[in-house]
Amino acid sequence: MTELQELKAHFERDGFVVLPGFLPADLCTRLRLETDHAMAPAALAPDEGPVFDFEPVPDGAARVLQRIRKPHNVSPFFNQLARSAILLDLVEALIGPQIRLHHSKINIKAPGVGSPLEWHQDWAFIPHSNAGLVIMSIFIDDCPEIKGPMLMLPGSHKQGLRDHHHDGLFYGAIDPDLLAIDQAKTAVGPPGTVTLHHPFTVHGSGHNRSDALRRILFYEYAAADAWPLFYGVDWPEYEARLLRGQSCNTPRFEPLPVKMPHPTPAAGTGKIYAQQRQFAKKYFTA
Predict the structure, then answer these.
(1) Model pTM?
(2) Burial class (CB in 10 A: 0-12, 13-18, 19+), 30
């Protein structure tokens, strides 16, 4: 209990927590094997499909996998891991005992290719009726600084919503000149490292400059009474993502800043990488 109280205090102070090597070795091994298995069908997948996203590469070049969407729907392992007590106990300490899985993904930074993610807040993409959300990342591979780890700005979750629109369009990125980037903290660690960050925490990540993969599994968790403000809800599917606590169809509202992630650049609809590629004022350069 004391450790979870300290976790919450750290989270509320900085807007994020890094737990190096949190998962046991046997679970890390299983995680790598299951990720390898989930990646394998990408070789035969279409360029635009429901599961895989690919890096932008020159015509004729070999495709490079960038993301697996909703791995909790792809593999029973990722579904079960999202529901495991070892993870949900951490989440409950931060947002309470009524927990729903909002989303999941595996971001893959290939050696020398892996795209960066410009500075942003997750809230800009996923506004809810209240801020009872926490975003968890789990390192599938080791992640030293050369692999383009997440960088997070301590205390930025207390500074409201930054503007992710420019010239009237939603690019999903913050003007880096408006940020105290020199204060950023780097989330590095071995496989099994877990990080948790607040939906208002400003964060980003650079290129993978190593010769090895950098894969990170993300689970986005929400309190059951935190309802998405613009996503449609398929009730049976929505209920299936309730992991702890009771069903809730009565949203709890907090007075929070909200700006819908629309309109977007024509070619960037729905995908953060595609939106940010068109943003002129990038921080992370090749």
Answers:
(1) 0.96
(2) middle
